[in-house]
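Dissemination and training. As part of the outreach component of the grant, students in the summer workshop were shown how a complex can be specified as a set of sequence lines and then modelled as a single object. The example used during the hands-on session is reproduced here so that future cohorts can follow it. Participants entered these lines:
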Amino acid sequence: MSKYLKINKLSYTYPDGHKALKEISFSIEKGESVAILGPNGAGKTTLILHLNGILGKLTGEIEVDGLEYSTENIAKIRKTVGVVFQDPDDQLFMPTVLEDVMFGPKNFGYSNEESEKNAIEALKMVGMDNFQDRAPHHLSFGQKRKVAIATVLASKPKLLVLDEPASNLDPASRRDLIKILMNLNISIILVTHDLPMALEICDRSLVLNEGMIKEDSLTKNILKNEELMKENRLELPYGFALHHLGEE
Amino acid sequence: MYSTTHSHHLSLHEESSLNVIKPEHKILSTFLIVISIAFSDVENLFQIFSHLIIVFWILFTSKIPSKTYFKRLAIDIPFIIFALFLPFISSENNDLVYTFFGIEVFRTGLIDMFSILFKVTLGVTMGIVLTAVTSNIELIYGLQKLKLPQIIIAIMSFTIRYIDVFIDEFKRVKISMRSRGYEEKGLKGLKPMAYASGAMLIRGYERGERVYLSMISRGFNGSIELKEREYNNSPSLIFLTIASIIVLILDKYS
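and obtained this result:
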């Protein structure tokens, strides 16, 4: 299989001098879903912003679907990598749900008709096609999250990146979300503190801490490694039994 | 954590024939009729009655409940109070018409008072009708159709979009302050409120940054366009607008 996303020695320092990422290297194959786990302040969100070429100047290399990170390629990279941000209120800013979902495709050069068709398709994928004309700020948090995912799916990305998609969701909405993600036929990078969700969706996980990748292996192996988990401030929910990880 | 306040919008849900017509027509008509009223001569009975008929015809068509109309007309009150003083202070060549226990009433002042009452009331009425039969989004859409600059359209739509989010956030901040014993009374209450407002300003700024990042990641290139919407034409509104302007012009040349 071809390497779909290649990151080589990526480092980033914020203008205030804080080193958020230190020589990170990893790659993802087409169709693969990978979770990024780690404590608060580990650099997860910074990494996500880089995948979309948002933070600008970086050292190291990023290659997405054969496209190297450069000013000319940036629009293509942003179309290829769809990012769903942590707070759906940051992502939904248009007056109606449909207009919001159409925003991306229109920017990426789809015609109005195509954008609308893509948007309706995307809304169907997340089960929100009956909400097209509603104002996003009148939706429940779970509904906003689904629409936020649709806004990204409508541009037909090949790699979907989600930043803490399960935070603040009630258990039923979380379950809906997992179902939606498992039914998508694209590569996923899932940044989360929800370890059971990571285990369910992603076979492979990266542990990111202090701007470095501490571990890159099968999710179940990471969750079983108590020492590694403790070192990186990770913890399984109380009552989560090991047989979920394939060990009776 | 995320409660959703539905801010009170001015548009009413009752459907009138004005609700479904093109918002750009409504905006332009309101603007032209208000201008025409503003330039009309209050000593000319033909103009006064023509404008009264035009405005109240539109008000009647809008099906705004009278209670709602008068409530919203209250915005008129400061102007009315100001106007009521005019007969006693505004005069030209000492054109006294009446003296009441030593209080003098002047003709110029009376005309000025009537002029303000007439123009403000009719102008506000047109504004009340426009906002009652046009939702916020439609207003912005109408302005877009009238070729208002993109950046202003974007700022207006962001304001409408985030006002609820901002109010909710401020409510949460206030609740958390009260739960720690804060009381809003007196001068003492002002300082914490000022700090909270400062914090809100920074939060607003940060949210702006995050929204912008999320827009860039979806390929934002500087233009936001609202989707095409379908509305009816309104020959009667166009007729009334033209009538209002003709009433003004007729008089100027008669």
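Chain A has one domain: 3-90+159-245. Students were then asked to discuss how this feature might be tested experimentally.
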